[in-house]
Amino acid sequence: MTRIFINYRRQDSEGYVGRLYDHLVQHFEPQDIFMDVDSIPPGADFVDTLEEAVSNCDVLIAMVGPQWIDIKDDGGERRLEQWNDFVRIEIASALKQKKVVIPVLVGRARMPVPSDLPEDLLPFARRNALELSQQHFAQDVKKLVKVIQDAVPTKQSNKAKPDSETFVRKEAALKLVRADLVGATESPLYKFRIENRLFPVIGEGNPDANIIFIGQSPGKNEAEVGRPFIGPSGEILAEMLKSINLKREDVYVTNIVLDSPPTKRDPTPEEITFYEPFVDRIIDTIQPVVIATLGRFAMQYILKRLDLPEKRQTISQLHGKLIKTRMQYGEIHIVPLYHPAVVLYSASQKATLQKDFEKLKLFI
Ligand code: URA
User: Fold this and answer.
1) Is any ligand 1 atom within 6 A of the Cβ of residue 228?
2) Are 344 and 288 within one domain?
3) Ligand 1 centre and the CA of 228: distance in Å?
4) Scanning 12, 30, 91, 95, which has its CA 20 to 30 A from the CA of 57?
5) Where does residue 258 rank: exposed (0-12), middle (13-18), buried (19+ CB within 10 A)?
6) CATH code where residue 259 lies
7) Could you read off the pLDDT of 175-221 as tens digits, one per residue?
8) Does any domain span residue 156?
């Protein structure tokens, strides 16, 4: 499912919009194509309402007709210069939210240059435009559809629903991983586990989840009950999940190290290597379409494990990016995220984490 927002000005491109819609519905679901923000309730902030409508989409198509740059209101002021112009608000909002913004030129319009645009639309001038001509309309729309499909990762919401058979099979496979882990006496953390009456923490959540979150290692509190992310970091994780309408039960949450180390410290290479086959089994069982890594250790672990070209980059370079790759069972995206604990140390990081989490909406 790819959600498309069509931004247009009636006087400028109306003749083309209806025709474009008729073509797009042959490739996308009609309920995923938005052309007008239907109603703005009395008292609502209309800028917020438009921004929210844009935030619910993956792609914004900006129809640019021959009058797009110069069209004026009754007072002779250029519409694009007005703070409350809905075309401007919607495009600026999509740019700000880093949505895919595709200018579509109609009626022989030209692409605006920076000097035509108010400041919040300047990045629009750098977007590559596509032209829809009356003569080659169907062909041109085909190109547009391809651009949309390439720009937005294939959503895998068509992943088999956890019919009871799949669910039971995966749940059983995860139980086996846990049993093997319980008996893993050769683990570098086994002695600490036993001496402190702790449990291994294999992970929890939906065994058939689309999204798996992989953190660093459980803390002692977590190992006391055998559940990951139940402390302050877990609260941040829950808050972030809620902000994108997900619950813990919808996803699977685990770590790269599956026992608690004796102190809060970075995992050792020996620990990471020891748990690797267990983590592999967890991923292979769940077969997620997204691996969201939490923190730099989990990120490096996955990028190296899959031998991806990004493996030498840092988390500050990669956080919030969608890295497309393949596993044996199909296409997958790696989404590196900062560890939720960053918010505990630096509240200003919350907005960054929040924004990065938004990327996961593409897979829900
Ligand atoms: N709890 C976990 O399970 N993993 C972390 O990385 C942090 C807290």
Assistant:
1) yes
2) yes
3) 6
4) 12
5) buried
6) 3.40.470.10
7) 999 999 999 999 999 999 999 999 999 999 999 999 999 999 999 99
8) no
Report the amino acid identity of residue 283: I
Query: Could you tell me if 89 and 35 lie in one domain?
Result: yes
Atom of ligand 1 nearest to the CA of 341: 7
> E strand or H helix at 101, and its extent?
strand 100-106
In a domain, 157, yes or no: no
Q: Does 181 lie in the same domain as 323?
A: yes
Asked whether residue 24 falls in the same domain as residue 126, the answer is yes
User: DSSP characters for 56-91?
Assistant: T-SEEEEEE-TTTTT-B-TTS-BGGGSTT-HHHHHH
pTM: 0.62
Number of structural domains the chain divides into: 2
- CB of 13 within 6 A of ligand 1: the answer is no
Indicate which residue's Cα is closest to atom 1 of ligand 1. 229
Report if residue 129 sits inside a domain. yes
Query: Hey, what are 123's tokens?
Result: 């990045």
pLDDT digits (tens, 9 = 90+) for 116-136: 999 999 999 999 999 999 889
CATH code for position 122: 3.40.50.10140
Atom nearest to 340 CA in ligand 1? 7
Neighbours of 295 (CB within 10 A): 25
Report whether residue 233 contacts ligand 1, using a CB cutoff of 6 Å. yes
State if residue 229 touches ligand 1 by the CB under 6 angstroms criterion: yes
DSSP state of 183: T
CA 70 to chain centre: 36
DSSP three-state, residue 1: coil
Together in a domain, 140 and 177: no
For the CA of 215, the closest atom of ligand 1 is 6
* Any atom of ligand 1 within 6 Å of the Cβ of 301: no
Query: Can you give the residue range of the structural domain that contains 109?
Result: 4-151
Do 353 and 310 share a structural domain?
yes
Residue ending a domain, choose from 121, 151, 181: 151
Determine whether the shortest distance from the Cβ of 340 to ligand 1 is under 6 A.
Answer: no
